[in-house]
Amino acid sequence: MGTSSHAYLEFDLRPGADPHALATALANLREPRTTIGGVNLVVGFRPELWRERLGMPGPTSLLGFEKPLIGPDGFEMPATQHDALLWLAGSAYDVVFDEARGAIAALAGLASVATETSSWPYRHDRDLTGFQDGTENPSLARAPEVALIPSGEPGAGGSVLLLQRWSHDAQAWEALSVDDQEHAMGRRRSDSIELEDRPESSHVARTDQDDFGEIFRRNMPYGTVTDHGTMFVGFARDQAPLHRMLESMAGLNGPRDELTRYTTPLTGAYYFVPAIAAIRSHATVED
After folding, report:
1. CB of 249 closer than 8 Å to CB of 257
2. Are strands 159-168 and 263-265 parallel, antiparallel or unpaired?
3. Average pLDDT value for the chain
4. Is position 285 within any domain?
5. In-domain check, residue 100
6. Is residue 286 in a domain?
7. Number of domains in the chain
8. What is the pLDDT of residues 16-51, one digit of tens each?
9. pTM of the model
10. CA gap 204, 185 in Å, rounded
């Protein structure tokens, strides 16, 4: 049935709360025991909390999004790092809603909800710009080698996750002609084929994975009719490709991404998503 409904919850550890107790509470969360309407759970931790406060192995070079990324013209990607992320994805929003409420209640004494965002698909595989999203993703067969930390490295089997919420200026974007939209994006809207004459400032050019390294994207639209945008979720085996893409979009090594003239980043955080076995090592309930 797919995962057509999503909820993203970011948490901050309460003053004086034990991070080990938070890890246990997150590890004890379980999806509904049903063959329909199930919910997938993704748990992420502030990298420093996972490594230093929990004493668990993780990528030593991975850092939280602690300071804004500012381009030469003043364009800013804000830093809104929190301590933990819980991403719930399911086939129906009522199930996601109930599971999210249950998770918040389970963590209530340990962590407070810092941000909450819900999302849903738009025209099957398009974002709210009208273009297909994720067309450069590796195949599902190759995705693990792109998104998962290799065996033998700290945090093996885990992944680096970048989470950003981008607000769209729909009125300005929709005022553009299709041709102007395509040149801002760098590919055709009808079939997502890259333009032969794509500008260097186009979104495709500024995020070209041949230049910056591969990632696996799992973006979704969010919001209401009057206030909406894109939840950017990027997975990678290390932080470098994700960070290089953000720098490129901000214009730190070339022209600024034209798409950022019509979308504004509101949040930015990096999380370490541990392997299932590492999460389960904190659990006190059995599957």
Report:
1. yes
2. antiparallel
3. 94
4. no
5. yes
6. no
7. 1
8. 999 999 999 999 998 765 444 578 999 999 999 999
9. 0.95
10. 6
